[in-house]
């Protein structure tokens, strides 16, 4: 049974469903919601690294805080506590890096996020997380 679970959270319908499923199916797990402030690859291609945290605008940080506040509200509805974190960069890379840093047992992602750009069966971010993940990945479709 997973004891530490990372949920990639962007307030999309599938991210909400992922978080709710984790609260229902893993009642004793520590849950971490991660929001990634995406920075287009062209703006930071020269600055690659697992510890990279690019400065972001105050507006982007406020939006991230708002998104994670909605995750905390969902946790409250389930009577659960929730750790939250914000990362900056390419979502798939940051999800995998955070999973490694937090030593999670499971990563849960929606198959398609807020952006709506997707592959035929699996979203690009979800597919890349599955390929690179140090832990099992549960993809919500």
Automatic annotation (TrEMBL):
Domain of life of the organism encoding this protein: Archaea
InterPro entries: Rossmann-like_a/b/a_fold, Universal_stress_UspA, UspA
Matches recorded under Pfam families: Usp
Ranges where the UspA domain occurs: 1-141
CDD domains per the UniProt record, alphabetical: USP-like (cd00293)
Homology family: Belongs to the universal stress protein A family.
Protein name per the record: Universal stress protein
